[in-house]
Design a protein that fits this description.
Length: 78
């Protein structure tokens, strides 16, 4: 299993909502104080993360939002 670290750019915990949950599927939404939003879907062990900004990969492999590059394909669930 590949592990990816995400740095949302703030230390505070996000506002977190579970949008949908079944025995084999979870969809959640996290919104941070800096405006960064992530939609996470876990389906049979596969995790998909969608965000309202594109990513920058730091030298250590951590992903962080590129606040200069909004993701125009992002669809919010709220």
């Amino acid at each position: 299993m590949k592990k990816t670290n995400i740095d949302p750019g703030v230390k505070e915990l996000p506002e977190f909502d579970v949008i949908e949950q079944r025995s084999d599927y979870i969809k959640s939404r996290a919104e941070y104080s800096n405006g960064f939003i992530m939609i996470n879907e876990i389906d049979k062990g596969t995790v998909t993360v969608k965000a309202n900004y594109h990513w920058i990969q730091k030298p250590d492999g951590t992903l962080t939002p590129d606040f200069n590059n909004p993701n125009h394909d992002f669809v919010d669930v709220k």
